[in-house]
Amino acid sequence: MTQNEGPGSVARTRAVVALLAGLVVFVLLFAWGGGIDPLPPECFSMFGWYSVPCDGWVAPAGGIATAGIVYLVPWLRDRRGQRSAEIEAKLLR
């Protein structure tokens, strides 16, 4: 790590990336602008390129789930790596 990097800056960067990923998924799943076809009910994406679920909870839930996964997976991986290094150091003593 350089002088400017520390645990706080890594966590902050990871949080910003997770929020951006969640926002991208939210926008891609948001049913708006493309219109609604009444029979059968079919909603289209914000850009009108593809159909998305018409339920209002899908876009926020997808965004939150994506942000959570993008934040937690690297955190768990780093934590596991630190734990492995601690165990290895104890074994080498």
Mean pLDDT: 80
Share in β-strands: 5-15%
How do the strands line up in the largest sheet?
1-2-3
Helix fraction by DSSP (H/I, runs of at least 4): 55-70%
SS summary, helix count: 2
In whole angstroms, how far apart are the ends?
26 Å
Number of strands: 3
Radius of gyration: 20 Å
Give the biggest sheet: 3 strands, antiparallel
Helix and strand content put the structural class at alpha+beta
Order of helices and strands: HEEEH
Uncertain segments are: none
Shape, principal axes of CA atoms: elongated
Short synopsis of the structure:
The chain has 93 residues and is an alpha+beta fold. It is built from two helices and three strands. The longest helix is centred in the last third of the chain and has 35 residues.
How would you describe this structure to a colleague?
This protein has 93 residues and is an alpha+beta fold. The protein has a domain at 31-92. 62% of the residues lie in helices and 14% in strands. The protein has helices at residues 7-29, 58-92; strands spanning 31-37, 42-45, 51-52. A 3-stranded antiparallel β-sheet has the order 1-2-3. The longest helix has 35 residues, at 58-92. The chain is elongated.
